[in-house]
Amino acid sequence: MTAKNLLTALLPLVSDLSRELPERERYRRLLESMRALLPCDAAALLRLDGEWLVPMAVDGLSDDTLGRRFKVSEHPRFQVLLDNPEPTRFASDSDLPDPYDGLVDGLHHHLEVHDCLGCPLFIDERPWGLLTLDALDPQRFDSIELDALQAFASLAAATVNVADRIERLALRAEDEHQRAEVYRQASGQQSKELIGQSKAHKRLIEEIGLVGSSDLTVLITGQTGVGKELVAQAIHAASPRAHKPMISLNCAALPDTLVESELFGHVRGAFTGALSDRRGKFELADGGTLFLDEVGELSLTVQAKLLRVLQSGQLQRLGSDEEHQVNVRLIAATNRDLAEEVRSGRYRADFYHRLSVYPLQVPSLQERGKDVLLLSGYFLEQNRSRMGLGSLRLTTDAQAALLAYDWPGNVRELEHLIGRSALKALGQHRTRPKILSLSAADLDLPSPSAPNEDATALAPLAGVATAVGDLRQATDQYQRQMIEACLGRHQHNWASAARELGLDRANLGRLAKRLGLK
């Protein structure tokens, strides 16, 4: 490689250092220049976050790679690259597993990476992450001088440094737009992230940053399985209360008789079984955030008592007249239309308006386009690690099937589907494969062109309204037959039926009990 070639490849990056570019575009240009300088089949820029490597940009790798989180201790090649301050090239016959096996874009069969090199990036003399290059040809990098990669790495570090500085300046100039903390490390465990690049997802992140810096009560709405609790955690992490606890309570998981005790606490002897004083969720969350999930399930009585606490900050434990003052920020979530519940008299209007000071709608997975592939990559890497596989990937037809499906159960359904499909696919192999590919057949998703079975199954219900006396009875009869039909299709698997019906499992159980199906 001549000095002229090196200079030609580096000049655009030098020019970019003085330009204001989005972070994603800056990193894309970085990898594009590197592939022009050092021809390869795939390249990646990964950021070190605690014990994890997070892909910031990839070129030549499958889209789902951006959603993966690589635990360094499980990928010895990454560990070797991080331990060596100089560029490292692995022997083509190295027995260390390659994290990118099966992930090179555009391949329809299992072809493993054969030539691999990379080097760490340092910012202020501290390791920031990695640059990696991979090729399918074992001799591809024979002519590459590692000094050229080292020179490129120095400029790449400057690019990363500029991107970090621009981001810090933007945050300092716009305090009201504090970002939700996406990459967190707590107690040595990897926290769940809000992963996505779609416009709908970016709007959500912007709103989280906006409302996070305030102390407003937030009502998070959205379909079942979209990740409302993750959004609540991100709001708390972006708030001045982030150093204080966030306490959660699923209102649908407790009967009315226990909700008050869970929220407000009780004193000894307040009811049968109250053997000692106990603080409630409000007191535990004092100074921090209280997250109430499935808030649409609260009874009118509990709503009235909650309203008093929200207005005055004062509460009484069950069985006590003593007042306790608390300072709590409330975040609530529901998949119900609470405005409609208010109109029908099933929800207090004053409590609803107190909750929805800042309503925040979480987009469905169907609205997020190719985010489904990024999320799939995240879940694939989790399952690869859990199952002890070298690589777990999606075939092209599997990716197409994921993009074509409408995801009534949203991200939760995707997570369960990936885990279930990986386990079933592994069970079809007598010996554990090095690379396990999930095909569209393994995912077993309904074809988008298939006839609507639900419409066929529910056709007999069209005449229910005329067959029964009043509207409530007709509605109950319709719900009863719809649930029975759904249970029949899922062999009486209540969890699967709840996903199809768009209901929480506990909510479906209560509804079925009221309708006499249990």
Total count of domains: 4
How many angstroms separate the termini?
Answer: 75 Å
Give the spatial strand order of the biggest sheet. 3-2-1-6-5-4
Question: In CATH's first tier, which class of the largest domain applies?
Answer: Alpha Beta
Overall geometry = globular
Radius of gyration: 27 Å
Uncertain segments are 170-190, 448-468
CATH architecture descriptor of the largest domain? 2-Layer Sandwich
Q: What's the CATH topology name of the largest domain?
A: Beta-Lactamase
Question: Brief description of this entry?
Answer:
By secondary structure, this protein is α/β, with parallel strands linked by helices. It is 43% helix and 17% strand.
Which features characterize this protein?
single chain, 518 residues, alpha/beta, Beta-Lactamase, Rossmann fold, Helicase, Ruva Protein, domain 3, 4 domains, 6-stranded antiparallel sheet
Describe it:
This protein is an alpha/beta fold. The protein is 43% helix and 17% strand. It has helices at residues 3-16, 23-37, 76-83, 146-173, 199-212, 228-237, 256-264, 281-284, 300-312, 338-343, 349-355, 371-387, 396-404, 410-427, 440-443, 453-458, 464-467, 471-489, 494-501, 505-514; strands at 42-49, 52-59, 70-71, 88-90, 115-123, 126-135, 185-186, 189-190, 218-221, 246-250, 265-266, 278-279, 289-293, 314-316, 323-325, 329-334, 358-361, 391-394, 435-438. The strands form 6 sheets. Strands 3-2-1-6-5-4 form a 6-stranded antiparallel sheet, with helices on both faces. A 5-stranded parallel sheet has the order 10-13-16-9-17. The longest helix has 28 residues, at 146-173. It starts with a helix and ends with a helix. Mean pLDDT is 82; it is low at 170-190 and 448-468.
